[in-house]
Amino acid sequence: MNATETKPRTSLVKTPEVNKKILVVDDESAILQTLRFNLERSGYAVVTAGDGRSAIAMAQREQPDLIVLDIMLPILDGVEACKEIRKFSPVPIIMLTAKVQEIDKVLALVLGADDYVTKPFALHEFLARVKARLRRQSSIQSEHDEAIALGSIVLDPSRQQLTVRGKEVSLAPKEFGLLRVLMENHGRVVTRQTLLDKVWGYDFEGEQQTVSVHIRWLREKIEEDSRAPRHILTVRSRGYMFKA
Fold first, then answer.
1. Residue 96: which CATH number?
2. Model confidence over 8-43: pLDDT tens digits?
3. Which of 58, 12, 11 is nearest to 32 (CA)?
4. Which residues pair with 164 in a beta bridge?
5. First to last CA, the chain
């Protein structure tokens, strides 16, 4: 992020995503204040934290609409903080990473982050990703949320609830999103790229392996035998298909 971008000369155009609350977590004061200044200038309400433990507490207390979370944090790093936040909240999380943090970046995405921005970054790119992620979240929340019942599996989006063979099963947000897309397209092949686009977002730049990992976790929760799945089938070289 360039210092010259801290205070843009022109006013930023406000959009329907403004007035949302954003939690920014970074232990570098200069970056924290720069992001806060520009997000507030764009119309967002901003709260901040400087370490992973404080980030978790702030996420619980403030209920932000989006979290910007640096990977390299004191006390508790961003990857572990992301993992803990995902236990109680589906809030969109954008990770801030350095180019040398490739392994941590992939791990963060697997554990539930929605997107990442690599340092150093241009301010306009960062603001565009924030806007896109909030817009996508608003779109998801406004979708029709009728329950989907296929055989012994019932998915209720309005309650974020899954019932398998009469028992309630807990899913992480991305697992829930994947299962929803697959069940809405039952009997049809859904490609890995389509799942990335629909669950992580069209602007997501992660690896398709992220989908495979979440599919494995999903099978372990809903299949009677995850090694011989009957519901979530792999269609070689194409993607996945849900069968009741």
1. 3.40.50.2300
2. 433 344 444 557 999 999 999 999 999 999 999 999
3. 58
4. 153, 167
5. 49
